[in-house]
Amino acid sequence: MKGYGILIDVAKCSGCYNCMLACKDEHCGETFPGYSEAQPMTGQFWINVNEKERGSYSKIKVSFTPITCMHCRNAPCIKAAENNAVYRRDDGIVIIDPEKAAGQKQIVSACPYRVIFWNEEKNTPQKCTGCAHLLDQGYQRPRCVEMCPTGALSFVDADELKSSNASSIHPEYGLGERVLYLNIPKKFIAGTVVYGETDQCAKEVTVTLKGGGTTVSAVTDGFGDFWFNDVESMTDYELEIEQDGFKKIKRQVRTYGDINVGELFLEKIA
Ligand code: SF4
Ligand code: SF4
Predict the structure, then answer these.
(1) How many Å apart are CA 11 and CA 151, to the nearest integer?
(2) pLDDT at 106
(3) How far apart are CA 27 and CA 4, in angstroms?
């Protein structure tokens, strides 16, 4: 068997936390011998949603990124465990054996994604099991995937995972993750064009962005706002605004993060 994987489409995630609640519903207070000890009611999130506020007032977006065990092909948690306490099943799911892993705190810190939790009461590390106990009973998908209302989570086979063009959120780790992401947001550059003399929004003004090997244009909306989404990170760009009867505006921008250039004032040519 080539195994399973999960595709996460970040563009479809609304941040509703149903996945996290479904996981809690399945695992809190329930021990599945051979698979997992019960998940405590507090302090552990075997799937969680990373909320990130991007940009600055008044050009802000929020992105939601579900994070869980990536069931890595090259898993540091397996290497850190003694006594084969962490192992990979034939279907690719990485399992922590709750009995063999007892007392092995070093397993927690081995994961760069920080998705392994220590259960003080049971003296054992814990994490997402891919709902392996359900899959082995014939269930088609883990509970988090089942309960996602937007289709942001998909349970797929290895071939679909490979052909999906999805990518790891941390390719630099080199772990061969089986949880991959679609539509990971790039950076944005946004701002507002204003007529300097009257302080009114300048609508339907063309703004041009050059850099990263491309030139693209946007037209300001009714509030004078413009947005360039999907621009490259850590890249030098030049914004240019040309409007008949007004001085040309140029701004140099480097995308250290999401950029709000603020208000750009058009000055009349004397
Ligand atoms: S994400 Fe962390 S816990 Fe999951 S398999 Fe990879 S190293 Fe292990
Ligand atoms: S259930 Fe789906 S939409 Fe809701 S937070 Fe989880 S992944 Fe996002």
Answers:
(1) 10
(2) 98
(3) 20
Class of domain 4-182: alpha beta
Q: Which ligand 2 atom is nearest residue 22's CA?
A: 1
Tens of pLDDT, residues 126-145: 999 999 999 999 999 999 99
Of ligand 2's listed atoms, the one at least distance from the Cα of 12 is 3
Residue 1 has pLDDT above 70, yes or no: no
Domain range list for the chain? 4-182, 187-266
Type of residue found at 234: M
Closest C-alpha residue for ligand 1 atom 2: 111
Q: What is the pLDDT of residues 121-131, one digit of tens each?
A: 999 999 999 99
Distance from the CA of 155 to the center of ligand 2, in angstroms?
A: 14
Ligand 1 proximity of 76 Cβ (cutoff 6 Å)? yes
Distances (CA, A) of 124 to 85, 86, 100, 239: 11, 12, 9, 55
CATH architecture group of domain 187-266: Sandwich (2.60)
Note the pTM of the prediction, 2 decimals. Answer: 0.89
Looking at ligand 1, which atom is closest to the CA of residue 86?
Answer: 8
The Cα–Cα gap between 106 and 119 comes to 13
